[in-house]
Amino acid sequence: MTEFTMKTKDFRKALHDQQLIGARCLDCGCLSVPQREICPNCLSINVEVSVLSGAGKLAAFTVIYVPSQMMAEAGYNGKNPYCVGIVELDEGPSVSAQILDLDLSQPESIKIGSKLSMTTVIRNEGDNEAVFLAFKPA
C-alpha cells in the first residue's frame, strides 16, 4: 500500500520524492499514468494507486528549437534546444516527458528503444517551485 492518493497533488508529491505513480484497475488490470479515479479502459472506479519502477524505453522523440514561454524562461532556445519524448514504461503505459542528458547536436544518434530511467526537473524556487517528470539514459 502507498501513502499516495488519487489527488493530482499527490502525483507532484511523488515526483518530489523521486517516485512515479499511476493507477491500476482492480477489474481489468489497466495501468494509467498519472493516476486516475476511473479506469480509462473499462470505466471502473475500482482502482488503486500503484508505484512504478520509473524504468522504460524511448518510443519516440523530438528536439525542440523554438520553446514554449515556460521552457524559454528555463533557458532553452534555438542554440540550446531540448528533447521531449514518449517513454514506454516497463509496466506498460506510455508517458510524455523531457529527455535529459542526450547529445542534441546530433539528434540522429538518439536511438528509439534506448533504455531510460525516471528523474525529475525542478524549476523555479520557493513558493513557485515546480517538479516535472523527466527521463535520462539508464
CATH architecture descriptor name of the largest domain: Beta Barrel
* Widest β-sheet, arrangement of strands: 4-5-6-8-7
Can you tell me the CATH class of the largest domain?
Mainly Beta
Distance N to C terminus: 27 Å
Q: Which range best describes the helical content: under 10%, 10-25%, 25-40%, 40-55%, 55-70% or over 70%?
A: 10-25%
Number of domains: 2
- Per DSSP E runs of 2 or more residues, the count of β-strands stands at 8
Q: Can you tell me the overall shape? A: globular
Q: Report the average pLDDT across residues.
A: 95
Per CATH, what is the topology of the largest domain? OB fold (Dihydrolipoamide Acetyltransferase, E2P)
The biggest beta sheet is recorded as: 5 strands, mixed, barrel
Q: Given the helix and strand composition, which structural class is it? A: mainly beta
* Number of helical elements: 2
Which regions contain 5 or more consecutive residues with pLDDT less than 50? none
Describe the structure.
By secondary structure, the chain is mostly beta strands. The chain folds into two domains: 1-52, no CATH class; 54-138, OB fold (Dihydrolipoamide Acetyltransferase, E2P). 10% of the residues lie in helices and 40% in strands. The strands form two sheets. A five-stranded mixed barrel has the order 4-5-6-8-7. Strands 2-1-3 form a three-stranded antiparallel β-sheet, covered by helices on one side. A hairpin with a 5-residue loop joins strand 1 and strand 2. It is globular.
